[in-house]
Amino acid sequence: MEKVLLLHSSCEGQTIKILNHIEQDLGEQYQCEYADIHLEPKIDFSGYDRVLIGASVRYGHLNKKLYQFIDRNLENLEQANVAFFCVNLTARKEGKDTPATSAYVKKFLLKSPWHPKMMAVFAGALRYPRYNFFDRTMIKLIMKLTDGETDTTKEVEYTDWQKVSNFSQQFKAL
């Protein structure tokens, strides 16, 4: 049985939902453990056959705790079988949903000393009813500017689950 570490930097939970889907795709021959990067976990990478990091974008940025985690674990990240995916609402648009075309992944690669062997970009979810007043107002403004959903009574999941499953299969081969 292979051991897999699923690390997350999540704002609203869609990144964790995507990791749960990947865990299901991997199947019973993989033993998965989760860790929240925001809690600054100390990881013994030698205890895992594969590591997957999922991180969400909030207001145009990945969380600074992700970059701190990378700085603390750079040598291990470069030596282990590690993949990375980014979750954002911009990826709901065709042409902005791959590592090569995602502005957030490009920015990540400029800021980060680590360049993952395998990467993906997934569209996230819009959860207006769950946001506080400030976030709901700001996200509605951003969505209006980008021709997105502005009805604040709605929750919309943009994640392409088939794309996630395809990534899961690639991750198995890493």
TrEMBL record:
The protein's topology relative to the membrane is: Peripheral membrane protein
Task: Give the reactions, separated by semicolons, that this protein catalyses.
Answer: protoporphyrinogen IX + 3 a ubiquinone = protoporphyrin IX + 3 a ubiquinol; protoporphyrinogen IX + 3 a quinone = protoporphyrin IX + 3 a quinol; protoporphyrinogen IX + 3 a menaquinone = protoporphyrin IX + 3 a menaquinol
Membrane-spanning intervals of the chain: none
Which biological pathway? Porphyrin-containing compound metabolism; protoporphyrin-IX biosynthesis; protoporphyrin-IX from protoporphyrinogen-IX: step 1/1
Q: Name one GO biological process term.
A: protoporphyrinogen IX biosynthetic process
- Tell me where in this chain the Flavodoxin domain is found: 5-152
What Gene3D superfamilies does this protein's entry cite? 3.40.50.360
Which prosthetic group or cofactor does it need?
FMN
GO molecular function term, any single one: FMN binding
Highest taxon of the lineage: Bacteria
Q: What is its main location?
A: membrane
Paste the cofactor note: Binds 1 FMN non-covalently per subunit.
Instruction: Write out the GO cellular component annotations.
Output: plasma membrane
User: Which keywords does UniProt give here?
Assistant: Cell membrane, Flavoprotein, FMN, Membrane, Nucleotide-binding, Oxidoreductase, Porphyrin biosynthesis
Q: What is its EC number?
A: 1.3.5.3
Q: Sorted alphabetically, which NCBIfam families does this protein's record hold? A: PRK11104.1
Q: Which PANTHER family match?
A: PROTOPORPHYRINOGEN IX DEHYDROGENASE [MENAQUINONE] (PTHR38030), PROTOPORPHYRINOGEN IX DEHYDROGENASE [QUINONE] (PTHR38030:SF2)
Give the record's family classification.
Belongs to the HemG family.
Question: What is this protein's record name?
Answer: Protoporphyrinogen IX dehydrogenase [quinone]
